[in-house]
Amino acid sequence: MALTTVFLISSILIICISPITAQSPPSPPLPPSPSPAPAPAPAHLNLTNLLSFAGPFHTFLNLLIQTNVIQTFQSQANNSDQGITIFVPNDSAFSKLEKPSLSNLTKKQLKSLLLYHAFPKFYSLSDFNNLSTHNPVSTFAGRQYTLNITDTNGLIQVASDWSNPKISSSVYSTDPAAVYEVNSVLLPKAIVTTAPALTPAPAPAPAPDLTPSSDLSPAGQKGSGAAPKSSESGNTNSSSRNIAAGAVVRLFAVVLGAIML
Questions:
Q1: Where are the beta strands (DSSP E) in the chain?
Q2: Beta strand 155-159 pairing with 167-174
Q3: Helix, strand counts (H, E) of the chain
Q4: Does residue 197 fall inside a structural domain?
């Protein structure tokens, strides 16, 4: 009887516990690991807008648009791994050139001249010191069109065959594009065969003559040019009269002495 009671109690406990175990909810699945965020796309540089608002670079920009070189520069800046470095002459640099220097060029020569103002690689200002040890440096126009870079204590000059301008300012310098202002147009002998004629600078106004006049009279007024001669002539006549008077006095004394004897 006791054994039966124990078996019955055990069975009841198994029946009561089993549903609870069977109905326990499964643990929730772990959330998926987040995927890494995509790298931001590089900013698109619009060279036309940049050159429109900087400078003034209107002459250079108009030539770039006219020859479609702006598209070549734009593609190199945004669609290449090397980037681009552009030397942009300001409007004053073009005004120093007489018009025949550029107006006689063919379309091909003009395009090469514009490509001559760029390196097909990005260079910051700090890169020019090392770049100067690799002269001459080929430009976008080809290996036969080269420039020489010099960096003297931070003064960076870009030497072509007919000009040696300095970098006067950094307009834009963020990889992949660098734009630097230069104060002269870069001119290679392969395109411009003779030294360009430069428009002469206006002559300075003559300085006022501050030398005091030497013909002022004691009263502070200018006398005529004949005044000194007239004074000298008067002195001469006065001396002559004095000599004549002295001779008369001596003659009178001689006559008087003779009468008294």
A1: 84-89, 118-119, 137-139, 142-152, 155-159, 167-174, 177-182
A2: unpaired
A3: 9, 7
A4: no
User: What value does the mean pLDDT of the chain take?
Assistant: 77
Please give the angle made by the CA atoms of 19, 25 and 29, to the nearest 5 degrees: 155
Q: Of 117, 152, 116, whose CA–CA distance to 132 is shortest?
A: 152
Rounded to whole angstroms, how far apart are CA atoms 245 and 241?
6
CATH number at residue 121: 2.30.180.10
Q: Does the predicted model carry a pTM greater than 0.85?
A: no
Retrieve residue 28's tokens: 């929730």
Strands (E), 36-162: 84-89, 118-119, 137-139, 142-152, 155-159
With respect to residue 252, please indicate whether it lies within any of the assigned structural domains.
Answer: no
User: Is residue 173 in a domain?
Assistant: yes
Overall number of domains in the chain: 1
Residue 2 lies in a domain: no
* Distance, first Cα to last Cα, the chain: 217
pLDDT tens-digit series, residues 188-207: 999 988 777 665 555 555 55
Per residue in 21-78, pLDDT tens?
445 566 666 666 565 655 444 567 899 999 999 889 999 999 999 999 999 999 999 9
- Return d(Cα 195, Cα 176) in angstroms, integer: 34
Number of other residues whose CB lies within 10 A of the CB of residue 77: 25
Domain range for 147 is: 47-182
